[in-house]
Amino acid sequence: MSRIPRLFVISGPSGAGKGTLVSLLRKRRPDLGLTVSATTRKPREGETPNVSYYFVTEDTFSAWVAEGAFLEHAGNYGNRYGTLWSEVNPHLKAGRSVILEIDVQGGFNVRKAFPDAVLIFIMPPSIEDLEARLRHRGTETEEQIQKRLKRAIAELELAPQYDEIVVNDDRKRACSELVALIDSYETDERN
Ligand code: 5GP
């Protein structure tokens, strides 16, 4: 069956397990394109430059904005994040669907540029679960955790504006749901 390459945005609050789900998804669908975002945030332990993110200075980021290099960009927790056109276009030209793991604000901006983009929200099973996952990660200070929780709650309220919601109650199950959803959008004439 022929597949229609689509742009899939995957969003959800920090700690909802998006990163893990996207890694699992990539194992099951290695043919999907995945974009590397640019950010002004400093690398966390374990992150690899040019793989996790393009870690750039504020000046470089601003220059790229001025050049129109970004499909979308947004501010988050005092840092800037953006998806470069050069990360998306080669995949679409090659007929591959692309996954953008970005925030909700970014998702809505992608929808403006690509009305056919499919916006998928990864929902934590509960706020308590989200808080536990944020703490378990151990990479943030208490103040940062509180900020992320507050923002997470605000993001959850925007979930109904997404095309699809996947509850990450169990990562294997949630990944299967994600794979099936992507498959249905690529093979059906769904909008
Ligand atoms: P983190 O600092 O935890 O890696 O990411 C913080 C937030 O920024 C997450 O919600 C993540 O999805 C979002 N993010 C990462 N890359 C991009 C991007 O290119 N554009 C936008 N709008 N958000 C991004």
Which features would summarize this protein structure in a list?
single chain; 191 residues; alpha/beta; 5-stranded parallel beta sheet; 4-stranded mixed beta sheet; 7 helices; globular; binds guanosine-5'-monophosphate
- Look at the helices and sheets and give the structural class: alpha/beta
Round the Cα radius of gyration to an integer and report it. Answer: 16 Å
- The best one-word shape is globular
Q: Compute the number of helices.
A: 7
Counting DSSP E segments of at least 2 residues, the number of strands comes to 9
Distance linking N and C termini: 18 Å
Oligomer: single chain
- Give the proportion of residues in helices: 40-55%
β content, as a range? 15-25%
Give the names of the bound compounds: guanosine-5'-monophosphate
Order of helices and strands: EHEEEHEEHEHEHHEH
Mean pLDDT: 93
Biggest β-sheet: strands ordered side by side in the sheet: 2-7-1-8-9
Describe this structure in words.
The protein has helices at residues 18-28, 58-67, 85-93, 104-113, 127-137, 142-156, 171-187, and strands at residues 7-11, 33-34, 38-39, 54-55, 70-76, 79-84, 98-101, 118-123, 164-167. With 191 residues, it is α/β, with parallel strands linked by helices. Strands 2-7-1-8-9 form a five-stranded parallel β-sheet, sandwiched between helices. It has a four-stranded mixed β-sheet with strand order 4-3-6-5. It is globular, with a radius of gyration of 16 Å. The mean pLDDT is 93. The structure holds guanosine-5'-monophosphate. Guanosine-5'-monophosphate is lined by residues 14, 37, 41, 72, 74, 76, 81-83, 101-103, 105-106.
